[in-house]
Amino acid sequence: MQNFSILDLSPICEGETASEAVRATAALARSAENSGYHRFWLAEHHNAPGIASAATAVMIGHVAGATSTIRIGAGGIMLPNHSPLVIAEQFGTLASLYPGRVDLGLGRAPGTDMATARALRRHMETADNFPQDVLELLSYFGDPKPEDRVRAYPGVGTHVPIWILGSSLYGAQLAAQLGLPYAFASHFAPAMLEQALQIYRSQFQPSPYLDKPYVMIGTAVWAADSLAEAEFLRSSHMMAVANLRSGISHPLPRPVKDVEMLVSPRLQSVLADHLAFSAIGTKETLRTRFSQMIEMFEPDELIVTGMIYDAGARIRSFEAVADVLKSLKD
To answer: Are 277 and 193 in contact (CB under 8 A)?
Structure first.
């Protein structure tokens, strides 16, 4: 493993405001930079009262301004929600403001419910234009060609690195075909991780962007001085996922003891699948768990996430994770 990074959703906590969430995200990014994390990514979600990163490019700019060296980017932008030209202009602007620091991860899902997707896109298309949209976006970031009738200003010539994100086999195949780095969302959908990595690595075609496969895998993590404390911190995430799967949309709940008493047996099964590729506990426990992940899947990079209600506890958790992962780097 070469690097380790953070995916943050900028959680809006129960009883708090979006302004507080945005400030907490900036504080976490500064801590991540000091702790040795390689990237700090934010994700696009809409109509979600517990997530403050809907305007993802704006949040990336906020985080970039609060830090100085850590790479910043999207993990990801849900490209079907947008015109490729608009995304090229947004991330071209970010790359012009913060040269050499900006990444753009692209997803194919809407990042929301279908009613909100319609509000975002206005016109829902039945055809899957994602591969063509990725190619169009790549062209906007490339060097200008005389035949180009449309260019992104800013954007042209910035060569912003593009990643393909996925939780199924589709993204693995596309990333391999285009010769792009690939990030698998095993932090919430680990079922196809092994098969997706095998497809990506075996089918990878070298490209002007990448000469050999580069894989990032995600894991949710909660670190504390004891397992009981880490489980208490994780309870907010578990209730948030249970609410989402029940069609309930709320800010991130306060943590509770005995969270299993508040979640139905059916949802406990859903949570077990959701958290199958997660890590929880003390530094010693995490070191064993991360070592297993790295040995089994040989990622080039590990990206960690974890919804924690208390901003201070969230920072401390990611600082502890960094201490462990630094010892496991190649």
So the answer is: yes
